[in-house]
Amino acid sequence: MILVTGANGQIGSVLTKTLRGIYGDAQVLATDIRKPETLEGSFEFLDILDKKRLYEVISQYKVTQIYHLAAILSATGELRPKFAWQINMDGLFNVLEAAKELNISKIFAPSSIAVFGNETPRQNTPQHTILHPTSVYGISKAALENWCQYYTKKYNIDIRSLRFPGIISHQSDPGGGTTDYAVDIFHYAVKGQDYECFLRADTRLPMIYMPDAIRATMELMHAPQENISIRTSYNLASMSFTPEEIYSAIQKNIPDFKISYKPDFRQAIADSWTESIDDTFAKNDWGWKSEFNIEDMTLDMIENLKKKNKLKVDHEELGV
Ligand code: SER
């Protein structure tokens, strides 16, 4: 049985569906502190800080693999540093200790571009580089990477990780991140509303479209063990763009769309991250190749959000 923590989050909700498609509904247990929108498949309430409950759920469902996605993102982390540290670190420790004590054989625990900092090379950021993150979230992810490597080597648990760029998705919304603007902007554009961006127009950040992020996760998790040379976390590249660039890609499809800029505290977080990523290790070790560029992604996002909005209007008209 596979256990997913944070299964209702941006990645979790899509990944849970994907895992169920691969392994079957009965083999994937979704857990979260919030109830899922639609109750499909097994679900258990689980606060990742509740170690006793985590152990109970693992034993009850005979869990052998964990996708550990429960975490607090960068912007929320700056507003609630101690809370973010607790969730991100104590939560991870509970999962790692459970793996050691209850014979979990495989874990996915994502990291992020937030591990990079002001001293990291900004272009084509190498795999092995200076990690002096400035945000609480980044500090917690840099620590996560080292702990994952430690538990892999010391206790022989097969732990794998990706340094995710900002993830763009229509199926689910992010919450409390610095790259959230790149999802929010589509929602405004499709509803015919103007968008006020909380980052400067020229802030270039690495991003990835959800289908690529999910495929990367599955390809990494299915790669033969002997191919996995990185036990901290793999650099993962797809596209990089600025708010101005994503705005003009959207505007080509929605000509009346307007944007304005009002940078807030998230600008400093974004400025400390890098612009583009060298993912040679992911390419060489497990054949990574991204499929979506900014144009494909923009078209797909707009089409899917329009469908979703139409469905919502139809439901409202029918009163369901
Ligand atoms: N999307 C995340 C954030 O903005 C980065 O991993 O916090």
List low-pLDDT spans: none
CATH superfamily of the largest domain: NAD(P)-binding Rossmann-like Domain
Helix count from the secondary structure assignment: 11
- The termini sit apart by 35 Å
Lateral strand order in the biggest sheet = 3-2-1-4-5-7
Structural class: alpha/beta
Beta-strand percent range: 5-15%
Report the top-level CATH class of the largest domain.
Alpha Beta
Number of strands: 14
Helix fraction, binned, reads: 40-55%
- According to CATH, the fold-level topology of the largest domain is Rossmann fold
Quick tags:
UDP-galactose 4-epimerase, domain 1, 14% strand, 3-stranded parallel β-sheet, 320 residues, alpha/beta, binds serine, Rossmann fold, globular, 2 domains, single chain
Structure in words:
- With 320 residues, this protein is of the alpha/beta class.
- The chain contains eleven helices and 14 strands.
- It has helices at 10-23, 51-61, 74-79, 81-101, 136-155, 181-191, 210-222, 243-253, 266-272, 280-286, 294-318; strands spanning 2-5, 28-32, 43-45, 65-68, 106-108, 111-112, 158-160, 162-164, 166-168, 195-197, 205-209, 234-235, 239-241, 259-261.
- The strands form four sheets. Strands 3-2-1-4-5-7 form a six-stranded parallel beta sheet, sandwiched between helices. A three-stranded parallel beta sheet has the order 6-8-12.
- Strand 1, helix 1 (10-23) and strand 2 (28-32) form a beta-alpha-beta unit.
- It is globular and about 55 Å long.
- The model has no long low-confidence stretch (mean pLDDT 96).
- Bound molecules: serine (SER).
